[in-house]
Amino acid sequence: MSYNSNAAEAWFPESAATSQEEIHIDLLPPASLNQPLRTRLLASLRDTLAPEKLPPLQLSSRPLDLGVPLGERLRMPWFRTVFTNIGDVVSPEALPPLELESVPVDVGEIISDQLSHIWFSLLLRNLADRLVPERLPKLDLMSKPIENIVPDTWMLLPRWSEVISTRKVFYADKPSTPTPSVTIPRPAAGLPATAPYVPARPPVEAGLLRDLRWSRVRGFVWMGVAAVQVIYLVVSIVHQ
Questions:
Q1: Are 23 and 3 in contact (CB under 8 A)?
Q2: What is the model's pLDDT at position 196?
Q3: Distance of CA 97 to the CA centre of its chain
Q4: Residue among 200, 221, 199, 218 nearest 210 (CA)
Q5: Would the pTM count as exceeding 0.85?
Q6: Rounded distance, CA 194 to CA 180, Å?
Q7: Is residue 200 part of a domain?
């Protein structure tokens, strides 16, 4: 089984032949899986107390400077990230030119650049494409066209709604049976004239007023926390 592409085998036939002979795939589980528990515990203790000294790692690829790792960025305090973003906007880092190993392909104008044009330039471009369209080369198809996609033995019938052109008829609803009306007599007793009636506040209004009071309290608390953070930031910058 070859792990190289056809182009690599064509350029380096000797290496492809030797690689086919040297590659050996072993799908069996490791021998340490069948060891007893005490043997594995002793091996783990030996690796912890006296680890094996391996030779230095030899890298054949070039190391890349990725900057600050993502874990370090997440552990940074928020004010350092703000200053870092401001510094990147004011004086951006000068990066080396990009080294491409692939062959660039001309895809024309990018969609974002097309959308950033002024509207009358797009109008002129559309008129030019409509009046003088671009002549493209003939399309080369590798597959052969399929003849008789629908067999002759099939019969395609349209739906009846596409054949009959009539107006829709809506039948009237069936009249419902009238329900007998029930009259409830109003009580004759009225309110006492000793004290005027004061309507109580509904529970919805009371809950709304309570939520408004708590929202004001929360606003004062958060404003105090923000003020403390700003004071701490200014003090830390001055002492640095």
A1: yes
A2: 59
A3: 30
A4: 218
A5: no
A6: 41
A7: no
The DSSP secondary-structure symbol of 132 reads S
Regions of the chain where pLDDT drops below 50: 1, 16
Q: Residue type at 60?
A: S
* Domain assignment of residue 140, yes or no: no
The DSSP element (H or E) to which 226 belongs, if any, is: helix 203-239
List Cβ<8 Å contacts ≥24 apart for 70-79: 79/233
The token pair that represents 103 in the structure block: 């062959």
For residue 123, CA distances in Å to 117, 118, 119, 127, 184 come to: 10, 9, 6, 6, 73
**To the nearest whole percent, how much of the chain has pLDDT over 70?**
78
Distance CA 28, CA 26 (A): 6
Amino acid identity for residue 7 in this structure: A
* Largest pairwise CA distance in the chain: 115
Is 21 part of a structural domain of the chain?
Answer: yes
231-234, Cβ contacts within 8 angstroms, sequence gap of 24 or more: 233/79
Residues 6+ apart with CB under 8 A from 150: 156
Query: Would you state the pLDDT for residue 73?
Result: 80
Does 110 reside within a domain? no
Cβ-contact 16, 4 below 8 angstroms: yes
Q: Give CA 66 to chain center in angstroms.
A: 23
- Coil/strand/helix, residue 52: coil
Neighbours of 8 (CB within 10 A): 14
Q: How confident is the model over 140-176, as pLDDT tens digits?
A: 878 887 777 777 778 778 777 777 777 767 777 777 7
Written as six digits, the tokens of 150 are: 């629908």
User: How many distinct structural domains can be found in the chain?
Assistant: 1
Domain that holds residue 14: 6-49
Q: H helices of 23-97, where?
A: 37-49, 70-75, 78-90
